[in-house]
């Protein structure tokens, strides 16, 4: 075996929507210096796009309370 790679995980696959950390850094730099958010919106996808295959997600109240108190 030469290479072991995860080519699919949930709604994400290897050929769609993947970016490098350099892309994210470049998009942040463009936004900071030129106030152009188009590239930033292109490389960062909303979390909801990953959760489209789930019918329901249950979150405990204690998990929400924990996040609120840390802010």
TrEMBL record:
InterPro entries: PsdUridine_synth_cat_dom_sf (IPR020103), PUA_sf (IPR036974), tRNA_PsdUridine_synth_B_fam (IPR004802), TruB_C (IPR032819). PANTHER family: CENTROMERE/MICROTUBULE BINDING PROTEIN CBF5, H_ACA RIBONUCLEOPROTEIN COMPLEX SUBUNIT DKC1. It comes from the Eukaryota. Coiled coil: none annotated. The keyword Signal does not apply. One of its GO terms (cellular component) is box H/ACA snoRNP complex. This is Centromere microtubule-binding protein CBF5. One of its GO terms (molecular function) is RNA binding. The keyword Isomerase applies. Keywords: Isomerase. Residues 1-51 form the tRNA pseudouridylate synthase B C-terminal domain. It holds the Pfam family TruB_C_2. GO terms for biological process: box H/ACA sno(s)RNA 3'-end processing; mRNA pseudouridine synthesis; rRNA pseudouridine synthesis; snRNA pseudouridine synthesis.
């Amino acid at each position: 075996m030469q290479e072991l790679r995860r080519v699919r995980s949930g709604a994400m696959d290897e050929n769609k929507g993947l970016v490098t950390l350099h892309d994210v850094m470049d998009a942040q730099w463009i936004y900071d210096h030129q106030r152009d958010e188009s590239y930033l919106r292109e490389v960062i996808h909303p979390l909801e796009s990953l959760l489209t295959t789930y019918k329901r997600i249950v979150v405990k109240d204690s998990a929400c309370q924990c996040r609120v108190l840390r802010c």
